[in-house]
From TrEMBL:
Cytoplasm in keyword set: no
Required cofactor names: Mg(2+)
Classification of source organism: Bacteria, Bacillati, Actinomycetota, Actinomycetes, Mycobacteriales
GO terms assigned for molecular function: hydrolase activity
Tagged with keyword Transferase: no
Protein name: NUDIX domain-containing protein
Listed InterPro entries: Nudix_hydrolase, NUDIX_hydrolase-like_dom_sf, NUDIX_hydrolase_CS, NUDIX_hydrolase_dom
């Protein structure tokens, strides 16, 4: 997909998805990104939407590929445009998703170097993808204050 930037130049847009998943202990599932953009940071599981795939089907496939967990896609929480580092944009649709409880232990696979459940207080010590804390707070997944570095990555 391409779009035109305000300067008339074409910008390549790629559509991606992410999944916000919490377990019965209110822990958040995160994956350690193996690849760019933002390799080496923790983020919610997700990835690119394949041709002909619905957004929810992409959420369920990506979570399974990256963590080994089966989830059910729920409501869309937010959409964000992220630069891809090479002049294009990822249009990322993030959804709430649920996994059967009690939640299983994730196993990292595909482009995730690691996958784990984290409590809200544990997020403070992690290097998260840009803006993740802000979006989680706005969506009500995390408290509006007291979790994570203020300003920082959020």
């Amino acid at each position: 997909m391409t779009a035109h930037h305000s300067n008339g130049r074409q910008v390549r847009r790629r559509v991606g998805v992410g999944a916000v998943i919490t377990d019965e202990h209110r822990r958040l599932l995160l994956v350690l990104r193996r690849n760019e953009p933002q390799a080496g940071t923790w983020s919610i599981p997700g990835g690119k939407v394949e041709a002909g795939e619905t957004l929810c089907a992409a959420v369920e496939r990506e979570v399974l590929e990256e963590t080994g967990l089966r989830v059910t896609c729920g409501d869309e929480l937010w959409v964000v445009d992220l630069p891809d580092g090479v002049g294009g944009v990822y249009e990322v649709h993030d959804f709430a998703a649920t996994t059967p409880l009690p939640a299983a232990r994730p196993r990292a696979a595909d482009d995730a170097a690691d996958a784990r459940w984290f409590t809200a207080s544990e997020l403070e010590s992690l290097t998260l993808t840009d803006g993740l804390l802000t979006f989680l707070r706005r969506a009500g997944v995390l408290p509006a204050d007291g979790v994570g570095p203020s300003g920082g990555v959020g």
